[in-house]
């Protein structure tokens, strides 16, 4: 299916620029079963590495609506401290395309230790503008064109347009990598919800 989606991008004149990869990790605190988790400790959080910022690492604490940016060496520090442990990692991996003023990324989403496909992510960025409000109409128009192109192919499933409430995380209208990190966290939550719903239907 990922090949079909890539072909669809190429059919609307997208030019392949190379591969891209992002990794999202779900962390839980390291406490013994008989230990209570201190109230100030987040019960879980997400760590995200992004291809456009190889020297940075992003944390999302969803319960408190916090996004943090750190040096990528923080991962080694966490490994040594052993206060939080990686539980699950998801890999977003595929191809990057240029289409006029748009940068597109198409990739599969799968657990890092497995090839089992969990979903397909399609990321669109309008390069001339960093204001989300000013670029919204342009992006909405592009998504319509994309949905029309995809409707001509009989593929299983459907694409969902996901836009988090960035203001909840204290983020402004000026788009940054922190916004991207929040979007990946939102995509992961949506995937988990979809998988749980599908399992519920089967049960």
List keywords for this structure.
alpha+beta, 7-stranded antiparallel β-sheet, Hypothetical Protein Pfu-838710-001, 4 helices
Write the layout of secondary structure elements.
Layout: H1 2-11, E1 15-29, E2 45-49, E3 56-61, E4 66-71, H2 74-81, E5 84-99, E6 102-111, E7 119-126, H3 132-151, H4 177-202
Antiparallel strand pairs: 1-2, 1-5, 2-3, 3-4, 5-6, 6-7
Note down, in words, how this protein is organized.
By secondary structure, the protein is of the alpha+beta class. 32% of the residues lie in helices and 33% in strands. It has a seven-stranded antiparallel sheet, sandwiched between helices. Strand 6 and strand 7 (119-126) form a beta hairpin. The longest helix has 26 residues, at 177-202. The model has no long low-confidence stretch (mean pLDDT 86). Component of the Mediator complex. It comes from Vitis vinifera. Belongs to the Mediator complex subunit 20 family.
Major sheet: order of its strands? 4-3-2-1-5-6-7
If helices are DSSP runs of H or I spanning 4 or more residues, what is the number of helices?
4
Q: Which of globular, elongated, flat, extended, rod-shaped describes the shape?
A: globular
Biggest sheet, open or closed, and with what strands and sense?
7 strands, antiparallel
CATH topology call: Hypothetical Protein Pfu-838710-001
Low-pLDDT ranges = none
CATH architecture field: Beta Barrel
CATH class identity: Mainly Beta
Mean pLDDT level: 86
Give the N-terminus to C-terminus distance in angstroms: 26 Å
Q: Using DSSP, what is the number of strands?
A: 7
- Helix share bin: 25-40%
Number of domains: 1
Strand proportion, as a percent range, falls in 25-35%
Q: Kindly report the oligomeric state of this protein.
A: single chain
User: What are the secondary-structure elements, in order, as H or E?
Assistant: HEEEEHEEEHH
Rg (C-alpha, Å): 18 Å
- Which structural class is indicated by helix and strand composition? alpha+beta
């Amino acid at each position: 299916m990922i090949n079909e989606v890539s072909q669809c991008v190429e059919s609307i004149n997208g030019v392949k620029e190379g591969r891209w990869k992002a990794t999202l990790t779900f962390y839980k605190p390291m406490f013994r079963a008989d230990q209570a988790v201190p109230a100030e400790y987040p019960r879980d959080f997400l760590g995200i590495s992004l291809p456009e910022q190889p020297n940075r690492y992003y944390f999302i604490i969803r319960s408190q609506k916090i996004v943090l940016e750190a040096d990528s060496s923080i991962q080694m520090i966490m490994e040594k401290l052993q206060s939080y442990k990686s539980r699950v990692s998801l890999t977003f991996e595929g191809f990057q395309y240029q289409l006029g003023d748009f940068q597109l990324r198409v990739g599969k989403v799968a657990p890092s230790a497995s090839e089992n496909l969990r979903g397909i992510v399609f990321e669109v960025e309008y390069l001339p503008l960093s204001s989300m409000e000013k670029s919204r109409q342009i992006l909405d128009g592009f998504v319509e064109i994309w949905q029309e192109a995809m409707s001509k192919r009989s593929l299983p499933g459907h694409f969902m347009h996901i836009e988090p409430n960035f203001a909840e995380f204290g983020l402004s209208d000026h788009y940054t990598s922190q916004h991207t990190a929040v979007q990946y966290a939102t995509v992961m939550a949506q995937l988990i919800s979809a998988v749980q719903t599908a399992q519920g239907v089967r049960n």
